[in-house]
């Protein structure tokens, strides 16, 4: 019992929750945006990988960290454009297109990485984002170091939740996005091109996925290695269902998830006799459980996965 | 610009689609090779040479194609019925692991070889089935989309394999390496060519392709599965039992992926590790799509992928182009195939 | 009077098909014009050109005298023309206000002015008597309320000309009446309206002027007062189509009997205790407004769902299993409500569509292997005997017209020689010629001794084909009246749930006929 208490009362544990949650927040918001406009983006796993690689490569070749994030966002948006053209314009299967983009983006990332670093036994590192203690606020006992001693991208992720919620629920653009995810015909009838809106939104969502990937190489770790995304993208897809497509709940889901992840990491080191793989399975098992719990309650965007072609109903 | 549905999709176009798709993927990959600073024709020449140029290379290509045919079939049968089985990777691993576990039963080592082989193959297939029935059950029972669950199960399956080969199934003679105890000798698949890795699994894979084709094209089950995939409501109205049909499709699909794992461990490696599959499961998706879900086409598509993978290895050594170019080309061909299929269905007009 | 809308000499071709040929149409302020025509007459294409979804090959569109630029989807809306679609363009998960406001503000505005939007919506809703709650979720509204939202959406865009596409297709009789009252009021307040329809009685009752479109051309224009249903019918169809006459019935034994059946609706209304008997050699018509349990009833008899309570007896027996193969094996032939969604699979071949529902029979398979040659031969026979045009045995069925698809469905059902025939909305969406053909087949089946359960929303069809008629209202069946006693008024009462007259008529009938 005291063991549990030790873990749960340690600042390090809670600090880690926010850190672990950050890429999930970016990724989940990205998936959420795409699904709100009616497109399932299974490209996320690959796009995060590409973001991680491009972010790292930019900084490794002399760019600053923010340029790295920007490059990751741009790279993500580019794959988003590809996804958008294939699914929104041509109306191809969103499942297969997304998987195709994941396979392509990951293998392309590894290819470019190997090209940049042909022979290195241990992956070269960059100087990552350092924690930025917010003046005054970080002095608050316990809460201070947990909430206000994070890296800049973490603050960015938290801010984005609010921005995205505002855009979705308070602006004409957000309304048009939600409407497109529900009924693209209605949007078209009102003179907004749902296909363009879909492509644009997928690009924005994919940019967020790219940034989420870059967080891994530029803040959480300091180098790139293949398969480093480890299914985080798929977890984000599950989290969006858990979040019932609402940004606030997406944050909650990511935090909850990160909590379990941080907790199992610490539990692993103190519990004997249980294979560590069981702990590592936890995030994936939890994602499946989250899907089961929410499946019946979910108010799925009605036009999700429905291609829109003018004149076809 | 708008797209009009072609009223009569032509058969010629349908046959040309995969060729066009592969060509387009090769051109884009060629650009990457050029950017990387190598001569494109030399690179492709080396890939072909690596894959076909020697007895060893050729046998490697066929060895590589064997599991790819099976995972490709697994994806093709599932997708036809609109069952999104993205979990072939995990099913492959549990199939392989199940064979190794089955081999640990003392009595198995005493069986005559043909019986041991058949039993082991069966065990692997059943393990794959079970892993796919799980997400299908969640879909039928709770309405959970099987795409994400079958994907997540891949990670769980590999972690489970890792746990077993470092724990209960660890080979005590492997100098501490995490690998399973070997498959008993009587369950090892016979070689097809001496001094190569090519084994009888290839024949099984080819037979499966023909069997799946026959099932789909000639049987009531095949017709019902296709109907259920194309239009669940119309299929239900025509009396197709949707749930049962999907379960049968899942057994077939998961079984084929599990069989792929079983054959790989019984034919090539002899024991299970966590790098048994260079993502055979995911490549299966590409192969199925390239084949336009046609089981016979899967053979060709699997060969193409195998050529790329085997050839790129030797090309990479010669030219210093990362061998990931093979993965890039194969993944690209999935995307170009999607576009090619679109163009067989629609024409672009203004 | 001022001309608010003018379509002049519109011609539009798709490849070799001419959808509109030299169509001219105008609308005066404060007027209600009905655009009458059968499916495929070119009504939809014409409206798509007006709204810029298609560009006309020849011709111009003027709103208030100003020519609209062709192919600009926003132009008509900006000029004050609003469209109320037959399939509502609404988002079920969003609120009324959100649905109405979508696309009405500049997309990049930083804050949506919901208060102003709400005020404008309430003002419009008051002015035209279209009551709605701005915060209600669309999914919680009735069909009639949804249509109100659609109209408000157009008005919110400052529309002065409203186009309504088949506005009553999904409404109950009462809702349709109140809709037309609203339209009258809107016209009186200066709006101008066009409604598209193929229903003669509503054209006669609600319009000032009728424009008849046939095969892409305007064939006639009449002041409503100066024409008749009969004249319009002939103009619309182009020839006098005679539907077949119903010979007297020779009812036999009870083939199908429902005893107090309850069944929870599967995506439709539930059945709350229905009982009926269907005799050999007769047609029992079930009339009703869409959404009162027809789909569930058809599904029940078709073998899709077993009853939750009560019993469904086929030839006096409870079927061993209540599923589709057993239903078909017991002699039930099924004509589905929706040919495209339930009846056929567009991407499968004609022969597969023809045999799929009986693929288990020894005729078409043995030991799980499809008898392809026999299946194709049987399909060939259906195509020939039922005059299915444009189909090949191996071709995809998607390419067939509605009428030919229905012929194929009739063929596959009737060649099995069913004793009981369930026909749900058998002539929905078909043109007059095809309807006559379908009716003939249904009467033939009855003539050879089958019991026909006809579920339809079309009064004329039910009266013409049925020997006895029941109304379905809220999942319950009214008493049965003989067709001879049926008229529009009585059926209207029955469909509205007033069954006193019907009860009396049923009481007078000899007991064996019930």
UniProtKB/TrEMBL annotation, chain A:
Q: How does it sit in the membrane?
A: Multi-pass membrane protein
CC per GO annotation: plasma membrane
Q: Where in the cell is it found?
A: Cell membrane
Keyword Cell membrane: yes or no? yes
Provide the coiled-coil residue spans: none
Q: Which residues cross the membrane?
A: 12-32, 39-59, 65-89, 96-117, 129-148, 155-177, 197-221, 233-260, 276-295
Superkingdom: Bacteria
Chief place where the protein resides = membrane
Cite the entry's keywords alphabetically: Cell membrane, Membrane, Transmembrane, Transmembrane helix
Q: Mind telling me which InterPro entries this protein's record contains?
A: ABC_transp_permease
Q: Does the keyword Zinc-finger apply?
A: no
Q: Which GO terms describe its molecular function?
A: transmembrane transporter activity
**PANTHER family per the record?**
ABC TRANSPORTER PERMEASE PROTEIN, SUGAR ABC TRANSPORTER INTEGRAL MEMBRANE PROTEIN-RELATED
- Give the protein name, as stated in the record: ABC transporter permease
Automatic annotation (TrEMBL), chain B:
Q: Output a single Gene Ontology CC term carried by this record.
A: plasma membrane
Q: Can you tell which superkingdom this protein's organism belongs to?
A: Bacteria
Keyword annotations from UniProtKB, A to Z: Cell membrane, Membrane, Transmembrane, Transmembrane helix
Is Hydrolase there in the keyword field?
A: no
Q: Which InterPro entries match?
A: ABC_transp_permease
Q: Does the keyword Transmembrane apply?
A: yes
- Coiled-coil residues: none
Q: How does it sit in the membrane?
A: Multi-pass membrane protein
Q: Where in the cell is it found?
A: Cell membrane
Q: Where does the chain cross the membrane?
A: 12-41, 61-79, 91-109, 115-135, 147-165, 198-215, 236-260, 280-312, 324-344
What terms describe the molecular function in GO for this protein? transmembrane transporter activity
Tell me what this protein is called: ABC transporter permease
**Which organism does this sequence originate in?**
Antarcticimicrobium sediminis
The taxonomic lineage of its organism, from the top, reads: Bacteria, Pseudomonadati, Pseudomonadota, Alphaproteobacteria, Rhodobacterales
TrEMBL record, chain C:
Name where it's found. Answer: Cell membrane
> Lineage, please?
Bacteria, Pseudomonadati, Pseudomonadota, Alphaproteobacteria, Rhodobacterales
Main location (coarse class): membrane
Membrane-spanning segments: none
SMART domains the record matches? AAA
What residues does the ABC transporter domain cover? 5-240, 256-499
Keyword Transmembrane helix included in the entry's annotation:
no
According to UniProt, the name of this protein is: ABC transporter ATP-binding protein
Keywords in UniProt for this one? Answer: ATP-binding, Cell membrane, Membrane, Nucleotide-binding, Repeat, Sugar transport, Translocase, Transport
Instruction: Quote the Gene3D superfamilies the UniProt record gives.
Output: P-loop containing nucleotide triphosphate hydrolases (3.40.50.300)
Q: Known PROSITE patterns for this protein? A: ABC_TRANSPORTER_1 (PS00211), ABC_TRANSPORTER_2 (PS50893)
The membrane topology of this protein is:
Peripheral membrane protein
One MF annotation (Gene Ontology) recorded for this entry: ATP binding
Pfam families attached here?
ABC_tran
Q: Which SUPFAM superfamilies match?
A: P-loop containing nucleoside triphosphate hydrolases
GO CC, sorted alphabetically, is: plasma membrane
Species of origin reads Antarcticimicrobium sediminis
């Amino acid at each position: 019992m005291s063991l549990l208490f030790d873990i749960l009362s340690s600042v390090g544990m809670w600090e880690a929750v926010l850190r672990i949650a950050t890429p999930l927040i970016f990724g989940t918001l990205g998936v959420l945006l795409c699904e709100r406009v009616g497109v399932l983006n299974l490209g996320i796993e690959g796009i995060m990988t590409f973001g991680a690689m491009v972010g790292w490569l930019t900084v490794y070749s002399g760019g600053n960290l923010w340029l790295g994030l920007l490059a990751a966002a741009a790279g993500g948006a580019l794959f988003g454009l590809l996804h958008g053209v294939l699914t929104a314009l041509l109306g191809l299967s969103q499942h297969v297109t997304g998987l195709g983009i994941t396979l392509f983006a990951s293998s392309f990332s590894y290819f470019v990485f190997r090209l940049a670093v042909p022979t290195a036994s241990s992956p070269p590192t960059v100087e990552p984002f350092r924690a930025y203690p917010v003046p005054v606020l970080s002095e608050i006992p316990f809460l201070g170091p947990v909430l206000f001693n994070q890296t800049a991208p973490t603050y960015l992720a938290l801010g984005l939740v609010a921005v995205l919620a505002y855009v979705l629920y308070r602006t004409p653009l957000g309304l048009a996005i939600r409407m497109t995810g529900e009924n693209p015909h209605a949007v078209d009838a009102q003179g907004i091109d749902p296909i363009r809106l879909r492509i644009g939104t997928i690009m924005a969502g994919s940019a967020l996925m790219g940034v989420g990937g870059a967080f891994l190489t530029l803040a959480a770790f300091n180098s790139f290695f293949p398969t480093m995304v480890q299914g985080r993208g798929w977890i984000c897809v599950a989290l969006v269902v858990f979040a019932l497509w609402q940004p606030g709940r997406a944050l909650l889901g990511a935090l909850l998830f990160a909590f379990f992840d941080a907790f199992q990491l610490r539990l692993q080191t103190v519990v004997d006799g249980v294979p560590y793989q069981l702990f590592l399975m936890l995030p994936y098992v939890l994602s499946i459980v989250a899907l089961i719990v929410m499946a019946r309650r979910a108010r799925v965007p009605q036009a999700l996965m429905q291609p829109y072609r003018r004149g076809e109903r | 610009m708008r797209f009009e549905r072609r009223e009569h999709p032509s058969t010629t176009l349908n046959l040309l689609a995969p060729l066009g798709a592969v060509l387009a993927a090769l051109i884009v990959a060629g650009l990457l090779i050029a950017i990387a600073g190598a001569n494109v024709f030399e690179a492709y020449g080396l890939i072909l040479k690596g894959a076909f140029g020697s007895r060893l290379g050729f046998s490697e290509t066929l060895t590589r194609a064997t599991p790819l045919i099976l995972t490709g079939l697994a994806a093709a049968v599932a997708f036809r019925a609109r069952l999104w089985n993205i979990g072939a990777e995990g099913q492959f691993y549990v199939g392989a692991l199940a064979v190794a576990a089955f081999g640990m039963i003392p009595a198995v080592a005493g069986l005559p070889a043909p019986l041991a082989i058949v039993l082991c193959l069966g065990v692997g297939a059943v393990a794959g089935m079970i892993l796919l029935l799980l997400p299908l059950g969640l879909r039928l029972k709770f309405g959970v989309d099987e795409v994400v669950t079958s994907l997540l199960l891949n990670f769980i399956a590999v972690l489970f394999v890792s746990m077993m080969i470092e724990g209960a199934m660890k080979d005590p003679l492997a100098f501490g390496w995490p690998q399973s105890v070997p498959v008993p000798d009587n369950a090892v698949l016979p070689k097809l060519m001496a001094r190569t890795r090519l084994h009888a699994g290839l024949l099984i894979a080819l037979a499966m392709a023909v069997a799946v084709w026959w099932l789909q094209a000639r049987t009531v089950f095949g017709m019902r599965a296709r109907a259920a995939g194309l239009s669940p409501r119309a299929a239900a109205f025509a009396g197709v039992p949707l749930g049962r049909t999907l379960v049968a499709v899942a057994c077939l699909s998961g079984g084929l992926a599990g069989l792929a794992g079983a054959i790989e461990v019984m034919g090539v490696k002899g024991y299970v590790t966590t790098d048994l599959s260079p993502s055979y499961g995911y490549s299966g998706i590409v192969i199925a799509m390239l084949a336009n879900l046609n089981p016979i086409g899967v053979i060709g598509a699997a060969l193409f992928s195998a050529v790329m993978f085997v050839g790129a290895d030797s090309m990479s050594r010669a030219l210093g182009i990362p061998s990931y170019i093979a993965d890039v080309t194969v993944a690209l061909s999935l995307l170009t195939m999607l576009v090619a299929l679109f163009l067989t269905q629609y024409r672009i007009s203004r | 009077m001022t001309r608010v809308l003018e379509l002049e000499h519109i011609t539009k071709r798709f490849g070799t098909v001419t959808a509109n040929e030299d169509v001219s149409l105008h609308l005066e302020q404060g007027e209600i014009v009905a655009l009458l025509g059968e499916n495929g007459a070119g009504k939809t294409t014409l409206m798509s050109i007006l709204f810029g979804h298609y560009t006309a090959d020849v011709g111009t569109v003027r709103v208030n005298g100003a020519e609209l630029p062709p192919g600009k989807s926003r132009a008509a809306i900006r000029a004050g023309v609003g469209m109320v679609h037959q399939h509502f363009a609404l988002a079920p998960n969003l609120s009324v206000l959100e649905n109405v406001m979508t696309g009405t503000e500049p997309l990049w505005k930083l804050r949506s002015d919901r208060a102003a939007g709400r005020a404008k919506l309430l003002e419009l809703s008051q002015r035209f008597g279209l009551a709605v709650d701005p915060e209600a979720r669309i999914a919680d509204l009735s069909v009639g309320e949804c249509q109100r939202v659609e109209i408000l959406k157009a008005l919110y865009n400052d529309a002065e000309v409203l186009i309504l596409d088949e506005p009553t297709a999904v409404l109950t009789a009462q809702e349709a009446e109140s809709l037309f009252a609203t339209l009258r009021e809107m016209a009186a307040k200066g709006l101008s309206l066009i409604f598209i329809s193929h229903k003669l009685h509503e054209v006669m009752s609600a319009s000032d002027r009728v424009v008849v479109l046939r095969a892409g051309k305007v064939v006639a224009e009449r002041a409503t007062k100066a024409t008749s249903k009969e004249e319009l019918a002939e103009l619309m169809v182009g020839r006098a189509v005679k539907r077949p006459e119903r010979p007297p019935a020779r009812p036999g034994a009870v083939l199908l009997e429902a005893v107090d059946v309850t069944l929870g609706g599967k995506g439709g209304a539930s059945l709350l205790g229905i009982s009926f008997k269907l005799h050999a050699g007769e047609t029992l018509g079930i009339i009703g407004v869409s959404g009162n349990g027809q789909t569930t009833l058809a599904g029940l008899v078709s073998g899709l769902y077993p009853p939750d309570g009560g019993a469904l007896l086929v030839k006096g027996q409870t079927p061993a299993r209540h599923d589709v193969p057993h239903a078909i094996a017991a002699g039930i032939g099924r004509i589905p409500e929706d040919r495209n969604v339930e009846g056929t699979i567009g991407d499968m071949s004609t022969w597969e569509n023809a045999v799929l529902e009986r693929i288990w029979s020894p005729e078409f398979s043995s030991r799980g292997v499809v008898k392809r040659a026999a299946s194709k031969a049987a399909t060939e026979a259906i195509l020939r005997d039922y005059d299915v045009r444009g189909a090949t045995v191996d071709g995809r069925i998607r390419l067939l017209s509605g009428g030919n698809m229905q012929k194929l469905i009739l063929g596959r059902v009737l060649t099995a020689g069913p004793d009981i025939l369930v026909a749900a909305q058998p002539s929905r969406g078909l043109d007059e010629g095809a309807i006559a053909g379908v009716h003939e087949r249904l009467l033939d089946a009855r003539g050879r001794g089958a019991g026909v359960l006809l579920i339809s929303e079309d009064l004329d069809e039910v009266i013409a084909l049925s020997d006895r008629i029941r109304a379905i209202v809220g999942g319950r069946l009214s008493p049965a009246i003989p067709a001879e006693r049926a008229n529009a008024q009585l059926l209207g009462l029955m469909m509205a749930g007033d069954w006193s007259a019907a009860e009396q008529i049923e009481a007078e009938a000899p007991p064996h006929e019930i």
